[in-house]
Design goal:
554 residues; 74% helix; globular; transmembrane helix; membrane; transmembrane
Amino acid sequence: MSRPRPPVPGFFQHLMLLWGLRLHLGLNQGPGKSRLLAVAAFLGSSAPGVLLGLSFFKLMRLPLIVHSNVWPYFILNLLCFVTAATWVTWPLLSAGVDDHSELSRYAAFPISPFRLLMGSTVASLFEPRALVFYAPLTGAAVGYASRHRLASPWLAVVLYVLFALFCAAWSRVGLYTVINVLRAKHSARIMGGGMVAFLVAASFIPPIDTSWLTSVGEAGVGALDMSLIINAAVALSQVPPGFFGDGLGQLAHGRVGIAMLEAFGLLFFTGLGMTVAYRLLMRFHRQAGGRSGGDRGDGRDSDPFATTGSRFDTLLRREVLDLWRNPRARLLAAVPFILAILLKLLSGRDLFVYLLGGSADAWVMGGLSIYGAVVIASTFSQNTFAYDGHGFAVFLAAPMSLADVLRAKNRVQGVAALVMAVLVGAFYRVYFGAGTLVDFLCAMAAVAAVVPMLLAAGNFLSLYFPVKFHASLKRRDRVPLTASMLGILAASVGCMPFGHALRAAGMDGPGWQSVAFIAGCAVLNLGVYLATRPLAMRLLDQRREIVLRAVTRE
């Protein structure tokens, strides 16, 4: 007599299993791993969300806001738009090509691809970054509800849930669009052409008028033309992300029917986003099966190692080629330039000039340059062997020292970060037509200070938190949250000299003494890197088998 088949798990069972597995991976459970440290890292990375939520909660309870007929709706609708835009563009800003692996990882499980996509999307709402993303809007919505009687509070909760699902769905559309572009045969040309087209299109859009900043500074908020705020609030309420903010306003006025229609609107656009995301994901997995990722060129290319003069030169050239062909690196290289274009399009520099005075260009140029360097250096140095895969076994079998491999990787990643920073700084100077030589040197010295700290931290993180990277992008193990937080800490320490020097310079702008101070700290950080590298090399020999198992596992 045959035994009855066990029932197929329901959606919520699948969701709980997926959450449990993500928590297991995120906390990096295993021998020798500190659960307490991992949990502390999770809570620490989510802590900014609490502060942001409380800040906007208090903002919405200020008498000036509560008694206004315009400001509450403008703030809510603006936060809705900013929250949704952040969700959707995050895959681009973070080169997030590692959040889509469930479909291939669980292909043999008794779950349909669409249900798995739904579960993965819902699970993404409870990651640390998500908690930070929608914390400001959550605080503002609760603060608004605490000062205005809502006709149907349950409908407000439904609107909030639908808004969160809307953001999660369209963030998947952004993610799967990015990974499809990265997997395209000519991904570098597509991204380069797209950036040029974006630059050309942005040049035809008139800049935003920021003259109101001066009037506000002289006469306060009352000097603002309220028709501008009213028109902006109305415009933001008419796009799908604004349905939540406008729905709260309708409930405050007792118009339950209109709020219900906006809930259906959010539901419709969420379903549309999930449909588009599913089609993009299936298209990606169909294409990712046959090739190993990136445009590798054709067979007519000559041997790139034919002219190397030594074994170390060969290692250097190999790392340069791997970085050049890596689709994630291509995306990371494009982001700072896109941010600069958006900054000019939105007249963001004028706002920084108003807030920071003569230090504005140093802050903005330095911030973009540091961002460009950090995303390149940290992404690859903090998991430096992940991209070798089975090639790491070749290093172990070859007649060479692993110390040379680590040294070559450090040199290529460090130089790539510095080159990236120089290109971003030069682009800022030409594109904005602003910034002095001192501003540029401050930015470059800041990069020179942060890169050694990233490399020093990355060497140890690569040994204690190695994960596998699949060149096809079809699947990638997540970097543990503990490693991510330690990497952020290293980047913060490296950026401290830059921040301290510009704060000391104040509104007058940095001088040559600022450049000298940051450069001195850069030399000190370089000394820290050189002092810690021998220890990392010794540990690499001791942990070679652990690293090999981590980067070759399937």
